[in-house]
Protein backbone atom coordinates (compact mmCIF):
# COMPACT_ATOMS: atom_id res chain seq x y z
CA UNK A 1 0.00 0.00 0.00
CA UNK A 2 1.03 3.54 -0.60
CA UNK A 3 2.19 5.60 2.37
CA UNK A 4 2.01 9.34 2.89
CA UNK A 5 4.31 11.00 5.41
CA UNK A 6 3.96 14.40 6.97
CA UNK A 7 7.02 14.89 9.14
CA UNK A 8 5.89 18.14 10.77
CA UNK A 9 3.17 17.50 13.38
CA UNK A 10 3.01 21.23 14.17
CA UNK A 11 4.02 24.42 12.42
CA UNK A 12 3.52 28.10 13.15
CA UNK A 13 3.73 31.20 11.03
CA UNK A 14 3.39 34.91 11.59
CA UNK A 15 0.42 36.54 9.96
CA UNK A 16 1.28 37.79 6.43
CA UNK A 17 4.35 35.55 6.26
CA UNK A 18 4.91 32.44 4.15
CA UNK A 19 4.99 28.88 5.41
CA UNK A 20 5.72 25.57 3.72
CA UNK A 21 4.26 22.26 4.84
CA UNK A 22 6.07 19.08 3.82
CA UNK A 23 4.69 15.84 2.45
CA UNK A 24 6.41 12.81 1.01
CA UNK A 25 4.84 9.66 -0.35
CA UNK A 26 5.87 6.22 -1.39
CA UNK A 27 4.53 4.62 -4.54
CA UNK A 28 5.62 2.51 -7.48
CA UNK A 29 2.91 3.96 -9.70
CA UNK A 30 3.53 6.59 -12.33
CA UNK A 31 0.06 8.06 -12.56
CA UNK A 32 -1.73 9.38 -9.49
CA UNK A 33 -3.26 12.41 -7.83
CA UNK A 34 -2.06 14.35 -4.82
CA UNK A 35 -4.14 16.62 -2.62
CA UNK A 36 -3.93 18.97 0.31
CA UNK A 37 -6.96 19.14 2.55
CA UNK A 38 -7.56 21.67 5.30
CA UNK A 39 -9.48 20.89 8.47
CA UNK A 40 -10.26 24.01 10.54
CA UNK A 41 -11.67 23.78 14.07
CA UNK A 42 -15.14 23.41 12.54
CA UNK A 43 -13.79 19.93 11.51
CA UNK A 44 -15.08 20.21 7.96
CA UNK A 45 -12.54 18.75 5.50
CA UNK A 46 -11.93 21.24 2.71
CA UNK A 47 -9.95 20.60 -0.45
CA UNK A 48 -7.20 23.19 -0.78
CA UNK A 49 -5.35 22.11 -3.89
CA UNK A 50 -4.93 19.18 -6.28
CA UNK A 51 -2.04 18.01 -8.44
CA UNK A 52 -2.08 15.42 -11.22
CA UNK A 53 1.18 13.50 -11.37
CA UNK A 54 1.38 13.68 -15.18
CA UNK A 55 1.44 17.47 -15.04
CA UNK A 56 4.86 19.02 -14.60
CA UNK A 57 3.46 22.41 -13.74
CA UNK A 58 2.88 23.03 -10.06
CA UNK A 59 -0.73 23.70 -9.08
CA UNK A 60 -1.67 27.10 -7.69
CA UNK A 61 -4.85 28.31 -6.01
CA UNK A 62 -4.62 31.96 -4.98
CA UNK A 63 -2.27 32.09 -1.96
CA UNK A 64 -1.74 28.32 -2.00
CA UNK A 65 0.79 26.64 -4.24
CA UNK A 66 2.58 23.33 -4.31
CA UNK A 67 6.10 22.22 -5.07
CA UNK A 68 5.68 18.84 -6.73
CA UNK A 69 8.90 16.87 -7.14
CA UNK A 70 7.90 13.59 -8.76
CA UNK A 71 11.31 11.96 -8.72
CA UNK A 72 11.78 12.80 -5.07
CA UNK A 73 8.14 11.86 -4.29
CA UNK A 74 7.68 15.14 -2.53
CA UNK A 75 4.60 17.37 -2.48
CA UNK A 76 4.91 20.44 -0.28
CA UNK A 77 2.30 23.14 0.25
CA UNK A 78 3.25 26.78 0.36
CA UNK A 79 0.90 29.28 1.94
CA UNK A 80 1.73 32.88 1.12
CA UNK A 81 0.52 35.95 3.02
CA UNK A 82 -0.79 33.74 5.83
CA UNK A 83 -4.09 34.75 7.35
CA UNK A 84 -5.67 33.91 10.69
CA UNK A 85 -8.24 31.82 8.86
CA UNK A 86 -5.48 29.55 7.57
CA UNK A 87 -5.04 28.10 11.04
CA UNK A 88 -6.07 24.48 10.71
CA UNK A 89 -4.90 20.90 10.43
CA UNK A 90 -3.56 20.20 6.94
CA UNK A 91 -3.61 16.72 5.44
CA UNK A 92 -1.70 15.52 2.43
CA UNK A 93 -3.41 12.74 0.46
CA UNK A 94 -2.60 10.36 -2.40
CA UNK A 95 -4.90 8.60 -4.80
CA UNK A 96 -3.93 6.19 -7.54
CA UNK A 97 -5.13 6.91 -11.08
CA UNK A 98 -5.35 3.20 -11.87
CA UNK A 99 -8.94 2.07 -12.37
CA UNK A 100 -8.34 -1.18 -10.54
CA UNK A 101 -6.87 0.52 -7.48
CA UNK A 102 -10.10 0.40 -5.50
CA UNK A 103 -10.46 4.16 -5.49
CA UNK A 104 -8.68 4.40 -2.15
CA UNK A 105 -7.20 7.58 -0.77
CA UNK A 106 -4.17 7.53 1.51
CA UNK A 107 -3.83 10.31 4.04
CA UNK A 108 -0.85 11.60 5.98
CA UNK A 109 -1.00 12.15 9.72
CA UNK A 110 -1.56 15.88 9.39
CA UNK A 111 0.25 19.10 10.24
CA UNK A 112 -1.33 21.50 12.69
CA UNK A 113 -0.74 25.07 11.53
CA UNK A 114 -0.94 27.97 13.96
CA UNK A 115 -1.06 31.52 12.64
CA UNK A 116 0.34 34.10 15.04
CA UNK A 117 -1.22 37.57 14.85
CA UNK B 1 -27.37 22.48 -1.42
CA UNK B 2 -25.32 20.29 0.85
CA UNK B 3 -23.18 17.93 -1.22
CA UNK B 4 -22.46 15.28 1.44
CA UNK B 5 -24.62 15.26 4.53
CA UNK B 6 -24.42 13.20 7.69
CA UNK B 7 -26.86 12.74 10.52
CA UNK B 8 -26.54 13.16 13.38
CA UNK B 9 -23.65 15.60 13.79
CA UNK B 10 -23.32 14.75 17.46
CA UNK B 11 -24.12 11.47 19.15
CA UNK B 12 -23.68 10.74 22.83
CA UNK B 13 -24.53 7.24 24.00
CA UNK B 14 -23.68 4.65 26.61
CA UNK B 15 -21.50 1.61 26.28
CA UNK B 16 -23.30 -1.41 24.93
CA UNK B 17 -25.83 0.53 22.89
CA UNK B 18 -26.37 0.18 19.14
CA UNK B 19 -26.37 3.30 16.99
CA UNK B 20 -26.44 4.30 13.33
CA UNK B 21 -25.01 7.20 11.38
CA UNK B 22 -26.55 8.11 8.05
CA UNK B 23 -24.83 9.60 5.03
CA UNK B 24 -26.24 10.93 1.80
CA UNK B 25 -24.57 12.55 -1.20
CA UNK B 26 -26.31 14.44 -3.99
CA UNK B 27 -23.29 14.69 -6.28
CA UNK B 28 -24.06 11.63 -8.36
CA UNK B 29 -20.79 10.02 -7.29
CA UNK B 30 -20.25 6.30 -7.60
CA UNK B 31 -18.04 5.77 -4.55
CA UNK B 32 -18.66 6.48 -0.89
CA UNK B 33 -16.43 6.04 2.13
CA UNK B 34 -16.42 5.95 5.91
CA UNK B 35 -13.43 7.25 7.85
CA UNK B 36 -12.71 7.33 11.56
CA UNK B 37 -10.73 10.26 12.97
CA UNK B 38 -9.35 9.69 16.44
CA UNK B 39 -8.39 12.20 19.10
CA UNK B 40 -4.95 12.65 17.49
CA UNK B 41 -6.67 13.59 14.22
CA UNK B 42 -5.48 10.46 12.39
CA UNK B 43 -7.84 9.64 9.52
CA UNK B 44 -8.37 5.94 9.06
CA UNK B 45 -10.34 4.45 6.17
CA UNK B 46 -12.96 1.97 7.33
CA UNK B 47 -15.08 1.10 4.32
CA UNK B 48 -15.63 2.05 0.72
CA UNK B 49 -18.57 1.24 -1.52
CA UNK B 50 -18.81 1.61 -5.27
CA UNK B 51 -22.32 1.49 -6.71
CA UNK B 52 -23.60 -0.27 -3.58
CA UNK B 53 -20.78 -2.84 -3.70
CA UNK B 54 -18.22 -3.10 -0.93
CA UNK B 55 -14.72 -2.54 -2.34
CA UNK B 56 -12.65 -1.58 0.71
CA UNK B 57 -13.12 -3.23 4.06
CA UNK B 58 -10.25 -2.39 6.37
CA UNK B 59 -9.63 -4.20 9.59
CA UNK B 60 -12.43 -2.93 11.77
CA UNK B 61 -14.40 -4.85 14.40
CA UNK B 62 -17.40 -6.82 13.19
CA UNK B 63 -19.52 -4.55 15.34
CA UNK B 64 -19.27 -2.03 12.52
CA UNK B 65 -21.51 -2.78 9.58
CA UNK B 66 -21.96 -0.49 6.60
CA UNK B 67 -25.05 -0.59 4.46
CA UNK B 68 -25.60 1.03 1.08
CA UNK B 69 -29.27 0.94 0.01
CA UNK B 70 -28.40 2.88 -3.13
CA UNK B 71 -25.38 4.65 -4.51
CA UNK B 72 -26.39 7.96 -2.90
CA UNK B 73 -26.50 6.56 0.63
CA UNK B 74 -24.01 4.82 2.87
CA UNK B 75 -25.02 4.22 6.46
CA UNK B 76 -22.88 2.97 9.31
CA UNK B 77 -24.33 0.82 12.05
CA UNK B 78 -22.37 0.14 15.21
CA UNK B 79 -23.34 -2.59 17.65
CA UNK B 80 -22.36 -2.90 21.30
CA UNK B 81 -20.59 0.43 21.44
CA UNK B 82 -17.32 0.64 23.37
CA UNK B 83 -15.42 3.56 24.87
CA UNK B 84 -12.76 3.23 22.15
CA UNK B 85 -15.36 3.91 19.49
CA UNK B 86 -15.47 7.55 20.56
CA UNK B 87 -14.22 9.53 17.58
CA UNK B 88 -15.35 11.68 14.69
CA UNK B 89 -16.72 9.65 11.79
CA UNK B 90 -16.58 11.13 8.32
CA UNK B 91 -18.49 10.11 5.29
CA UNK B 92 -17.05 11.05 1.89
CA UNK B 93 -17.80 10.50 -1.77
CA UNK B 94 -15.89 10.67 -5.04
CA UNK B 95 -16.42 9.88 -8.70
CA UNK B 96 -15.01 6.45 -9.45
CA UNK B 97 -12.70 7.72 -12.12
CA UNK B 98 -12.39 11.23 -10.85
CA UNK B 99 -10.06 12.72 -8.36
CA UNK B 100 -10.88 14.44 -5.10
CA UNK B 101 -13.12 13.32 -2.29
CA UNK B 102 -15.91 15.41 -0.89
CA UNK B 103 -16.43 15.08 2.84
CA UNK B 104 -19.46 15.33 5.03
CA UNK B 105 -19.40 17.50 8.16
CA UNK B 106 -18.51 14.57 10.41
CA UNK B 107 -20.33 12.93 13.31
CA UNK B 108 -18.77 13.26 16.73
CA UNK B 109 -19.56 10.07 18.60
CA UNK B 110 -19.03 10.04 22.35
CA UNK B 111 -19.44 6.77 24.21
CA UNK B 112 -19.78 7.08 27.98
Give a description of the structure.
The complex is a heterodimer of chains A (117) and B (112). Chain A is mainly beta and 117 residues long. Helix content of chain A is 0%, strand content 52%. Chain A contains no helices and twelve strands. The radius of gyration of chain A is 14 Å and the shape is globular. The termini of chain A are far apart. Chain B has 112 residues and is an all-beta fold. In chain B, 0% of the residues lie in helices and 56% in strands. Chain B has strands spanning 4-7, 10-13, 19-25, 31-37, 43-50, 53-57, 64-70, 73-78, 87-94, 102-103, 107-111. In chain B, a hairpin with a 5-residue loop joins strand 4 (31-37) and strand 5 (43-50). The N and C termini of chain B lie far apart (34 Å). The interface between A and B is medium-sized, with 23 and 25 residues.
Helix and strand topology:
The complex is a heterodimer of chains A (117) and B (112).
Chain A lengths: L2 E3 L4 E5 L4 E3 L2 E3 L5 E8 L6 E7 L7 E2 L2 E6 L4 E6 L8 E9 L8 E3 L3 E6 L1
Chain B lengths: L3 E4 L2 E4 L5 E7 L5 E7 L5 E8 L2 E5 L6 E7 L2 E6 L8 E8 L7 E2 L3 E5 L1
Parallel strand pairs in B: 2-11
Antiparallel strand pairs in B: 1-3, 3-8, 4-5, 4-9, 5-6, 7-8, 9-10, 9-11
In short:
The complex is a heterodimer of chains A (117) and B (112). Chain A has 117 residues and is mostly beta strands. Chain A has no helices and 12 strands.
Q: List the chains of the largest interface with their residue counts.
A: A-B, 23 and 25 residues
Assembly state (oligomeric): heterodimer
What share of residues are in beta strands of chain A?
over 45%
Strand tally of chain B is 11
Helix and strand run of chain A: EEEEEEEEEEEE
Cα end-to-end separation of chain A = 40 Å
Q: Number of helical segments of chain A?
A: 0
Look at the structure and give the mean pLDDT of chain B.
Answer: 91
Order of helices and strands of chain B: EEEEEEEEEEE
Determine Rg of chain B (CA atoms, Å): 13 Å
Percent of residues of chain B in beta strands?
Answer: over 45%
Question: How far is it from the N-terminal to the C-terminal residue of chain B, by CA?
Answer: 34 Å
Shape of chain B: globular
Low-pLDDT residue intervals, each spanning 5 or more residues of chain A = none
Number of strands of chain A: 12
Shape of chain A: globular
Sheet bearing the most strands of chain A, described? 6 strands, mixed
Amino acid sequence: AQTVTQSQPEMSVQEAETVTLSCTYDTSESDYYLFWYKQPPSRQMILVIRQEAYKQQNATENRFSVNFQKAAKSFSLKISDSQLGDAAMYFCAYRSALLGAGNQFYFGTGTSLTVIP
Amino acid sequence: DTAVSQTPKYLVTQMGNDKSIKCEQNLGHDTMYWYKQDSKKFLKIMFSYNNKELIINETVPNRFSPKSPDKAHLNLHINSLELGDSAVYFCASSPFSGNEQYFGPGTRLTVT
